[in-house]
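Hey,
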Amino acid sequence: RQGDWPRLLHVLEASVAEADPATALGPLLRAAEISERHLGDAERALALHQRILEATGDFEPSLQARLRLLQRLGRFTELAEAYATAAATAATGADRAAYLLRRAEIQELVLDDPEAALATHRELCEIDVKQPLAAHGLGRLALQQQDWETVVVALKYELRGLRGARAADVLHQLGEVMERELDQADAAIDHYRRALDAAPEHPLAAASLEGLLVELERAAELAAFYRAELERTEDPVRRGELAARIGRAEADQGDRRAAIATLTPVAEQGVLSARRELERLLTLERRWPELATRLERQAAESEVDAERVRALTRLGALQEQEL
C-alpha cells in the first residue's frame, strides 16, 4: 500500500531464496513484475523469469516475458534462441510456426545472418501448417545466395495445396530452375508437362516445353507434344501451324512419308510453313511430278504476287532440270 517497491522486492526474493521455483511461482512472478513495471529493472526481471523457466521449462507467462524483455534489452542473439525454445515447446503447429517466423526475421534483418534465417525458414516449411510466407522467405533467401537446390525445395513447399493455374505457375518455375540452373533437362520436361496437366492453356509452360524439346532434338517427344496441343485447340490457324510442326517433327525422325502425309492437307489449307516443308520433303524424296503439280496449283491459286512468282520460278527450274 505504501508503494515501497524495493523493500517488497527484497522481502519476496528473500522468501524464495532457497525455495524450489516450481513451488514458489507466485512470489517469483510478483518479484519479476515489480522489477519490470515499478522499478524498471528489465535485467532483474529477466533473471527471475529465467529462474522460473529453468525449473518449469515451458511456463507460458515467463516464456512470453523473456521474449518481451530480451527484445527491450536489445539482446537479439539470445532472443533468436529464445524463439527457438518457444517453438520447441509450443502447444500447436500454428504457434510453433509463428515463433519460427519471428526467429527468421530477427536472424535475417537484425543479426544479418541469412544462412541461419534460411535454415529456420526450411524448418518452418516442414511444419504441417499452411505458411506461404515461410516458402516465400525460403525461396527469396535461397535466390539471393543462388542456392538453387534450396530454391527448388522452397517452390515444392509453395506448391502444396495449389491447383489449376496457380499450381501451373509454380511447376513452370520449378522447370525453369531445373533447366537453366541445375542442368536437369529431364526433370524440367517433367515439370513443364505437369504444369500443362494442371492448366492445359498455360502459354509459358507450353513454350518452355517446346523450346527444350527442340533444343534437345527429341523429335518423337516433340511430335507427341504437338499432337496433344492439336487436340486442345480449336483455332483453325493454330491447328494448321501445329499440324505443320508435327510434319516437321516426323521428318526429323526420318519418316518422310508420314511427314508428307501429315503436311499435304495442311499445305492445301494455305499454311505457308507447311507448304515450304512439304516442298522440301518432296524434293528430298525426288517426287518430281507431285512437286510440279503442287507448284502449278500454288501459282494458279496464290493471291500474293511474290508467292506466284516464286512458285513459277521454282516450277520452271524443276521442269528444266528434272522433268
